[in-house]
Amino acid sequence: MSRMKDSNDRIDNKVYEYRVLRHLSQSELADAVGVSKQTILVMEKGNYSPSLILAFRLADYFGASITDIFNYHKGDEEQ
């Protein structure tokens, strides 16, 4: 049986770092991956976990792997 998502599970990301290294605005990145500026904003603040498709789009855009940009932490891990 699979474990349901625990309320303490989280996904950290490095979207901000990758965006800044490319000298992109939030709007420019949003346009490049097909989402709104607001989506990029809340993702960078850690308040939004992207769909798998969006995670792949971001990784592809930056020429990185998903695990370079996103890091999953189980709720029972030390923070």
TrEMBL record:
SUPFAM superfamilies: lambda repressor-like DNA-binding domains
Keyword DNA-binding (UniProt): yes
SMART domains xref list: HTH_XRE
KW NADP (keyword) present: no
GO MF annotation, one: DNA binding
Highest taxon of source: Bacteria
Key words of the record: DNA-binding
Protein name as catalogued: Transcriptional regulator
Annotated organism of origin: Lentilactobacillus kefiri (Lactobacillus kefiri)
